[in-house]
Write a structure and sequence with these properties.
The chain has 802 residues and is of the alpha+beta class. Bound molecules: 2-acetamido-2-deoxy-beta-D-glucopyranose (7 copies). The site of one 2-acetamido-2-deoxy-beta-D-glucopyranose has 9 residues, from strand 17. Keywords: Hydrolase, Metal-binding, Metalloprotease, Protease, Secreted, Signal, Zinc, Zymogen. One of its GO terms (molecular function) is metalloendopeptidase activity.
């Protein structure tokens, strides 16, 4: 069975009562997994010297990692290979590894899923994932750019519509089509309607490849597919011609290639212009295993009220949606350097308290000065999308950009506010204003005799709590390496690389849904958006903003999406195992952050959902009876969805982490010590003793305890793994992170953790296709040569089972 279904949230709904607008957000995410894209560790030494590259001083490194990556790609694909080094490549301070992202081009057009992530350290290629297209370049009779000239006219539409009519051909499995192979009477009516557009279709033979579909047709067809419900979709089809004619198409320039690009304005059901750019995208070869074919496609970026899609519509068959990622991820499928004069203080449930049942509120202050040099309430005026009335600009010194201080929940990392109306606008939504003393202290009054609006009565507290939690997450992830150059979320980046203008927009008590939460992650340089909902699962109703685990889960989508496949690629965790891990990491971090030195099993979202096992099937537990998930669990019915897959991944990571805790102990804080006045970060009790390289330079510090080390390895692993990783790739990336950071000291424990839940070295997926399916096998053994397992194949491996 191929999971190409629109993942409406109601599937699997059972135990929870679901409110009127409850999680009915429609979200499409599907596409093929590339047969060749897996994490490879070169067996021999592949380094600058082997490419004949000379040493040159490059940011303190002896070799330019981009040059090494380019030579490496040429060694794989020949000197004629067409590619570009993506601008979101960076050197990671924690591991010293350069993450170089190489994007393939064919005929000067980008292959949007043709990427090689080359991980380079000291001039050496230590690992890479490769999803380049390996066949020959297609040729066309028609120059794609001719499509845009002359500007959009009637004849043009006709051409496109004609091609639409030729498109009801065999469609490779796994793709969504506007009308099925066997059209219903309604489909036939729609086709007739298109024909009535008076376009000349006679000359078009089925399958003729050079016909390019008009981008506005592709975009409108996508909207028909993605429309929030069937009625909207039917209405669009009924007035198809009229809709098409009202679209305004404005040519723009592609930032990365010479391919034609346009902006399409006035598209129904969108919240801004749709961007369309000609690109290639790969699909599995229908007959040849491990081979892909190139499809010319319109690469669409589509902002909608409840979704932000990156979609690929075939540019030669107007009804084919090839792949799509929704940058918005839901919480779950309902089972149903300037110390401030005035320190802001917040009366909130402090970091580590998961929800109001875990402790009382207290007045706290503080932010991490390394992660947030200006604190949480200030930014240069040029970085603010809107200048708060209450902000008092500093008098600028000469050309200096004035630093604005805000007395509301508005700052460099997070914009938090109510969104009771569930609208898309957010800039002028209400935020608590703490005034000049900066005391954010509001009442918490959950009414026993609830009304639907009960949580509204403590709205200012909710916004404050959300602002606090989201900023803490920004700061803690920063300290483990989710910094400016790796694509974190900040308005202003302090000249430290990456793109700014992307603080997280946090909507508290968002009126667009109930009993859920979601997060949108566009590429670096565009704001992330978190929407937190009220839960009607208990009386009085509960506010998801007050459950830190849910906020952490959501923000972690931003972390994993930006770190996997590079900051500028938001399409790497869309579906399948990759999409599932996108959910799993969030649960893993939420659970890790709330856990204490006394071991305990934890549920996810149990307070908000008012359900002891929370919003997943099982609690996270070391006990096989309490949580029986293993790798093979993914074969079970009900486990095709990303949340169920994620639960298995989070459970496996929980085991791995606890093995590390058993060896290295538990750190009561996950926050590393603050930097000293001279910028040096002290080891404190948090890090292992510092190590120095041959030249006496201090190497990056490594957390010493099991929980803090697990956080580091998982985050560093995300940077190493390729786009669309499998469980195997993510496991191997964590092992490589340990190799880089500790010299592989924890190899045995990490393998034991993975093997305990079936993800040993011989675990396999047989008969899987790029569109899914297949049968998984658990493996509980350990690799040869690890944990003292004998290398000698004649030894009985049974003895070494865990
Ligand atoms: C395809 O790749 C898989 C996994 O690497 C391999 O087992 C299989 O033999 C390959 N098939 C062909 C036809 O190359
Ligand atoms: C909160 O404080 C009250 C009294 O001050 C105490 O009775 C209660 O147990 C505390 N709640 C929690 C969850 O710690
Ligand atoms: C704004 O905050 C910065 C530090 O965050 C401080 O140096 C500056 O004096 C403040 N400006 C005003 C006008 O309060
Ligand atoms: C929340 O705070 C704002 C600004 O500080 C204030 O105007 C508003 O009345 C408060 N709302 C509630 C419900 O207390
Ligand atoms: C809630 O309402 C019930 C009946 O409607 C009433 O008996 C009870 O006293 C109320 N409780 C509170 C705390 O107001
Ligand atoms: C595992 O959980 C089951 C069910 O709760 C319990 O009976 C058993 O004692 C637990 N095992 C261990 C080792 O704690
Ligand atoms: C920074 O200060 C600390 C403590 O004063 C000192 O031990 C360390 O050597 C200093 N580091 C540098 C790079 O100056």
């Amino acid at each position: 069975m191929i999971p190409l279904i629109a993942t409406t949230l109601l599937l699997a709904s059972s135990a929870l009562s679901v409110g009127a607008h409850s999680g009915a957000r429609k979200s499409l995410s599907f596409g093929p997994k590339h047969p060749t894209a897996k994490l490879n560790v070169p067996s021999g030494r592949v380094d600058a010297a082997s490419f004949g590259l000379g040493k040159r001083a490059h940011c303190g490194h002896e070799y330019d990692p981009k040059e090494v990556a380019a030579s490496f790609v040429q060694s794989l694909y020949g000197s004629e290979a067409e590619f570009r080094i993506r601008a979101d490549s960076y050197i990671d301070d924690h591991t010293g590894v350069s993450h170089i992202y190489v994007r393939q081009l064919v005929n000067g057009v980008e292959v949007m899923d043709g990427d090689i992530n080359v991980n380079v350290r000291d001039g050496q290629v230590i690992s890479y994932g490769d999803s380049f297209y390996r066949g020959s370049a297609p040729t066309y009779a028609m120059d794609p750019s001719s499509l845009l000239e002359p500007a959009h006219d009637q004849a043009h539409h006709c051409e496109a519509l004609s091609s639409y009519l030729t498109s009801f051909l065999a469609v490779p499995s796994g793709q969504l089509t506007l009308t099925p192979d066997h059209p219903t009477p309604e489909d036939a009516e729609f086709l007739a309607l298109l024909q009535a557009h008076n376009c000349h279709t006679a000359s078009l033979e089925a399958g003729e490849p050079e016909q390019l579909v008009d981008p506005s047709v592709s975009a409108l067809n996508f909207i028909v597919l993605a429309a929030p419900d069937a009625e909207v979709s039917a209405a669009l089809k009924e007035n198809y011609g009229a809709h098409l004619m009202t679209l305004a198409v404005i040519p723009t320039e592609s930032l990365t290639s010479t391919a034609p690009a346009v902006e399409i304005h006035d598209m129904p059901h969108t919240t801004g212009p749709v961007k369309a750019e000609l690109a290639y995208v790969q699909t599995p070869h229908p007959d040849e295993e491990n081979t892909t074919v190139l499809n010319l496609a319109w690469h669409l970026t589509v902002p909608m009220e409840d979704n932000a899609y990156e979609a690929f519509m075939s540019a030669t068959r107007a009804n084919r949606l090839i792949s799509v990622v929704d940058w918005v991820s839901d919480a779950y499928v309902p089972i149903p350097k300037h110390p401030k004069k005035i320190e802001p203080t917040y009366n909130i449930w402090t970091w580590g308290l998961n929800d109001p049942t875990e402790g009382n509120r207290s007045m706290v202050s503080g932010y991490d000065k390394t992660a947030s040099p200006f604190g949480w309430h200030a930014m240069p005026s040029s970085a603010s999308p809107y200048v708060d009335h209450s902000a008092k600009p500093k008098i600028p010194e000469e050309d200096e950009d004035p630093l604005l201080n805000f007395t509301t929940t508005w700052g460099n990392n997070v914009f938090a506010h109510e969104n009771l109306e569930g609208r898309n606008e957010w800039e002028f939504n209400q935020r608590p204003d703490a005034g000049s003393d900066m005391v954010f202290d509001y009442e918490y009054l959950p009414k026993v005799n609830f009304t639907n609006t009960s949580p509204r009565e403590y709205l200012n507290l909710s916004v404050t709590q959300l602002f606090y939690t989201a900023n803490m997450i920004h700061d803690i992830y920063y300290r483990y390496g989710f910094d400016e150059k790796s694509g974190n979320f900040q308005q202003h980046n302090f000249g430290k690389g990456g793109k700014g203008s992307d603080a997280v927009i946090c909507n508290a008590q968002d009126g667009s849904g109930y009993n859920n939460a979601n997060f949108m992650t566009p590429p670096d340089g565009q704001n992330g958006k978190m929407r937190m909902y009220v839960w009607n699962t208990a009386k009085p109703w509960r506010d998801g903003d007050l459950e830190a685990g849910i906020v952490i889960h959501e923000y972690s989508h931003g972390l994993s999406t930006r770190l996997t496949g590079g900051p500028a690629n938001s399409g790497c965790l869309g579906w399948g195992e990759a999409g599932g891990m996108g959910e799993g990491w969030g649960d893993f971090f939420a659970t890790t952050i709330r856990s204490t030195s006394t071991y305990q099993d934890y549920a996810m979202g149990d307070w908000a959902a008012n359900r002891p096992t929370g919003i997943r099937n099982y609690k996270y537990s070391l006990n096989m009876t309490v949580n029986p998930s293993t790798y093979k669990t993914l074969d079970k019915p009900g486990y095709w969805g990303v949340h169920a897959i994620g639960e298995v991944w989070a459970q496996i990571l929980w085991i791995v982490e606890n093995r590390l805790i058993a060896v290295h102990g538990f750190s009561d804080t996950l926050f590393p010590p603050e930097a000293l006045a001279n910028g040096t970060i002290p080891e404190g009790d948090f890090y292992r003793p510092a190590q120095y390289d041959a030249k006496g330079k201090r190497l990056p510090l490594i957390p010493k305890n099991g929980n803090s080390l697990a956080m580091q390895l998982v985050i560093s692993g995300m940077k190493l793994q390729p786009c669309r990783p499998s469980f195997f790739d993510a496991r191997d990336a964590i092992l490589q992170a340990d190799e880089l950071l500790t010299g592989g000291e924890n190899k045995c424990e990490i393998w034991k953790g993975f093997s305990e839940r079936g993800l040993g070295p011989e675990a396999s997926l047989k008969g899987g296709t790029p569109w899914g399916g297949g049968v998984r096998s658990d493996d509980y053994t350990l690799p040869k040569g690890v944990c003292g397992v004998d290398d000698d194949p004649e030894d009985d491996p049974e003895d070494e089972r865990l």
